[in-house]
Specification:
The complex is a heterodimer. By secondary structure, chain A is mainly alpha-helical. Chain A is built from three helices and no strands. Chain A is flat and about 50 Å long. By secondary structure, chain B is mostly helical. Chain B has a single domain, classed as Helix Hairpins, CATH 1.10.287. In chain B, about 85% of the residues lie in helices and about 0% in strands. Chain B is built from four helices and no strands. In chain B, helix 1 packs antiparallel against helix 2 and helix 2 packs antiparallel against helix 3. The longest helix of chain B is centred in the middle third of the chain and has 31 residues. The N and C termini of chain B lie far apart (about 75 Å). Classes of the chains: A mainly alpha, B mainly alpha. The interface between A and B is large, with 51 and 51 residues.
């Protein structure tokens, strides 16, 4: 029962990661791509958390913490870059 | 049915709900028309889904060391994602990378106009 739940969760997360990558590739503006890559980052964090829940092991917890901070730095710097650029 | 089984069942429910929310956020990213509406999909369902996943890890590995780190991650996400979304929305508004016909009201336009009038006089 538990294994079936984990399989469904992994399939759903894979689908959402694929959709985010699709938007990163096709997104018309740089801000669309930034929002989509943020969604991809959160999906990666969710994947690491599912792996840790499956193994009952918390080896990647500090990695998830780093990703939470890095995503913020990335989107803020891209937003500032876009608003500074001359028209 | 021991206590551990109950915790595992709760964790499975949290994981499934979190995965459904992650998919709904990604669907919004694909389907919504402009940056401002995509921000809505990127922040709200994604953060709630991540919270449910963190809760699931806390239920599977119930120790104080784990739970304190999980609370730290959740606090960072809740503090930083709104700020990042605000910065992206502001950059989109300033560089006009949005669809004006999609806005019901543009209250910021009046403020911007008043500010530029003050600067001109």
């Amino acid at each position: 029962m538990m294994n079936l739940a984990f399989a469904v969760v992994i399939v759903l997360l894979g689908a959402s990661a694929l959709m985010a990558v699709f938007r990163v590739v096709t997104g018309p503006t740089i801000l669309d791509r930034m929002v989509a890559s943020e969604v991809f980052l959160v999906t990666v964090m969710c994947g690491l958390l599912v792996e840790m829940a499956y193994e009952r092991d918390t080896y990647a917890l500090s990695l998830v913490l780093c990703l939470a901070l890095l995503g913020f730095v990335g989107s803020v710097s891209v937003a500032r870059f876009v608003s500074r650029r001359p028209e | 049915m021991t206590g551990r089984d109950v915790l595992d069942a709760l964790a499975a429910i949290c994981l499934l709900l979190g995965a459904v929310l992650a998919v709904s956020g990604a669907l919004g990213i694909v389907r919504f028309p402009d940056v401002l509406s995509k921000l809505h999909a990127a922040t709200k369902p994604q953060v709630l889904g991540l919270m449910l996943m963190l809760a699931a890890v806390g239920l599977r590995v119930p120790s104080w060391g784990t739970i304190s780190t999980l609370v730290l991650i959740a606090a960072f996400q809740v503090l930083t994602l709104p700020v990042a979304a605000h910065m992206i929305g502001r950059a989109a508004y300033r560089t006009r990378q949005l669809k004006p016909e999609r806005l019901y009201r543009d209250e910021l336009a009046e403020v911007v106009e008043r500010a530029s009038d003050d600067q001109a006089s």
